[in-house]
Amino acid sequence: MMAEETEIRTYEPPEEFARQANVDDASVYDEAEKDYEGFWEKRAKELHWFKEWDQVLNWDPPEAEWFVGGKLNVAYNCLDYQVEQGRGDKTAILWESDEPGEGKAYTYSELTAEVKKFANVLKGLGVGKGDPVAIYMPMIPELPIAMLACARIGAPHSVVFGAFSGDSLRDRINDCEAKVLVTADGGPRGGKTAYHKKNADEALKDTPSIDSVVVAKRVGEDVPMTEGRDHWWEDLAAEAEDECPAEEMDSEDILFILYSSGSTGKPKGIVHTTGGYLTQVKATTRWVLDVKDDDVYWCQADIGWVTGHSYLVYGPLSNGATTVQFEGTPSYPGPDRHWDLIERHGVTIYYSAPTVIRAFMKQGTEPLEGHDLSSLRLLGTVGEPINPRAWEWFHNNVGKGNCPVVDTWWQTETGAIMIAPLPGLTKTKPGSATRPFPGISVDIYDEEDNPIEGAGKGNLVITRPWPSMLRTIYKDPERYRKTYWERLGDKYFVEDGAERDEDGYYTITGRIDDVMNVSGHRIGTMEVESALVGHESVAEAAVIGRNDEDKGQAIVAYVILEGDREGDEELIKELNNQVRKSIGPHARPEEIIFTPDLPKTRSGKIMRRVLRGVAEGQEDLGDTSTLADPSVVDDLKAARQ
Ligand code: 6R9
To answer: Is 307 labeled as ligand-binding?
Structure first.
């Protein structure tokens, strides 16, 4: 990635920006370094607590508790507390539909009322404190309303990205044993309609824990409703009581579970709790995204991923901001949709993703022309490494050179931003996420797990606990320990490679495990492999992510067939469908290569490095002498022709 440009320019914060930034005193870094618990305690005090904590941190690796004994409610912080501070009539959620100019706005008072009602709906269906609720919805306002309603009554939500298949939804519901599923009849996106209830019905054939399904109406077409189990959102809400007190939650009670791909086995139910999560999410939204009262803030991620949880819903709302929720895609009805939206709503902060920026770049600057983007004052990116060229393009063409770009590194597991500039203070370098957030401590370790001194390249490690860290993997503490802590004991092993330069700036180079990053979506190679071998004609499959200009990585599947089935177009179609059905369309392989054999070491391990090399058309595949049968490489090259 760094080879792209030999000389990287650096950018000081624009003076005008620095003058108004939420954080403009560089001593915060030193202060936090001297006493990181004290630093986070100050941030926690910026929330509303029913009762303050007795102890800031209880760290018994790998178990952390933050703000021990504190009582608070996340929905109260995002709603009632905002109304109490005079934001009742301020727009909380500005929802824009798939069709330009159509949409709806909710003030903080209106949103509070909707959430209270829906919280009562959930209670009426028997949901109590601690009962997980599954949510599978398109990007409609009912999605954040359902999340906040769960938070209000202390029911952990488990949001499943709306493009996941019925099978994926089923597995996630069964893992957390949700009693209630909240979904929608469907939703338009990019001019096409997706049918969530239909997919959910597939899942519901085999989800014994589910007693009730609530269906929000978005599309308005007929959908089959199962008597006694399925209910329309609007019918239940019409009958529900208006008042619903916010449950006093313990700081360490679960706020949500979010499933994320790992290198082996089934997706992991990442668990986030209440006090620490909201503390770090609220602080990073203010400090890194510089959100203020008069901002129109837009995070373009889907709420089904962690970015949407933390920076579309909880971060902006706990700061009393106006958050834009967009139902559609960047290319519908035209390639200027985002610019049109920014102009019409006067968006001031735009938090985007490298894959989206690269797609814009490809279209050139024409779609930008004729749109007034002067409302913008800050740009952000997240999800994957951003190549310096895309960073520069974003900075120059969207930000017109006046808006700082914050490249924010974090993960589902970290819950909130970990490495990123403070835009009023930090000099930025295209391609670098720059410095750890104050109070966060990271390092780079070599292959022998020794810290590297000064500049260098290696494995990223987080060396101290942080408030929004995952607390466990749902119902699998052993997997939690093994995945993240077994290697270093009391330090968190990230599974990302990183480089540190002379200024102490970090550039994240990408995953070092078998997790692919396709258009910013985390997909495990194992998940795609097991989907493929689920097809009767497939004996074995090996999946890798090959570098791709647009998507970051593209999925390539090597497939060994069983019996005498021919690897033809028809079979490719069937295999694509197989993946679509068992995971979702976003996991469909870009390329399927039929091969008689796979490159394996003598101990039977697939050498993915070789598969990646072949898929990227590399001439030199490096050392292949440890292969059990080195001639496989020629077969693979021939198969790809
Ligand atoms: C928030 C989110 C996490 C993985 C992470 C890393 C990659 C995210 C990045 C980045 C380079 C950035 N990643 N942000 N790589 N620079 N600014 O994306 O969570 O879906 O769990 O993915 O994404 O590889 O480990 P998640």
So the answer is: yes
Shared fold status for 2-72+272-439+468-495 and 74-239 = yes
pTM score of the predicted model: 0.93
Q: What value of ipTM does the predicted structure carry?
A: 1.00
Distance separating alpha carbons of residues 2 and 70, to the nearest angstrom: 45
Q: Could you tell me if the CB of 545 is within 6 A of ligand 1? A: no
Instruction: Residue count of the chain, please give it.
Output: 641
Q: Which helix (H) or strand (E) holds 355?
A: helix 354-363
| Ligand 1: nearest atom to the Cα of 495 | 25
The CATH number of 74-239 is 3.40.50.980
- Check the annotation: does 494 bind a ligand: no
Pick the CATH number of 2-72+272-439+468-495 from 3.40.50.12780, 3.30.1340.30, 3.40.50.720, 3.40.50.1970: 3.40.50.12780
What does the domain layout of the chain look like in residue ranges?
A: 2-72+272-439+468-495, 74-239, 517-640
Report the atom number in ligand 1 closest to the C-alpha of 520: 18
From 506, 517, 553, give the residue whose CB has the most ligand 1 atoms within 8 Å, as the site to mutate.
517
Q: Residue 453, annotated ligand binder?
A: no
Amino acid letter, 223: V
What was the pLDDT predicted at 182? 98
Domain 517-640 has CATH 3.90.550.10: no
Distance, in Å, from the CA atom of 553 to the CA atom of 543, rounded to the nearest integer, reads 12
- Answer for the pair 177, 132: CB distance below 8 angstroms, yes or no: yes
Of ligand 1's listed atoms, the one at least distance from the Cα of 511 is 24
Strands (E), 472-614: 472-473, 492-500, 506-511, 515-518, 521-524, 538-548, 552-561, 591-594
Pocket test for ligand 1, best of 358, 409, 418, 507 (most atoms within 8 A of CB): 409
**Dist. CA 566–CA 594, nearest whole Å:** 9
CA separation for the pair 320, 334 (Å, rounded)? 32
Testing ligand 1's pocket by substitution, the residue of 387, 506, 508 carrying the most ligand atoms inside 8 A of its CB is 508
- For residue 496 and ligand 1, the question of a CB distance below 6 A is answered with yes
Mean pLDDT estimate for the chain = 95
Digit-coded pLDDT (tens) for 389-448: 999 999 999 999 999 999 999 999 999 999 999 999 999 999 999 999 999 999 999 999
The predicted-structure confidence for 6-23, as pLDDT tens digits, reads as follows 467 899 999 999 999 999
For residue 137, count CB atoms less than 10 angstroms from its CB and return exposed for 0-12, middle for 13-18, buried for 19 or more: buried
Q: How confident is the model at residue 3 (pLDDT cuts 50, 70, 90)?
A: very low
Strands 405-407, 378-381: pairing kind = parallel
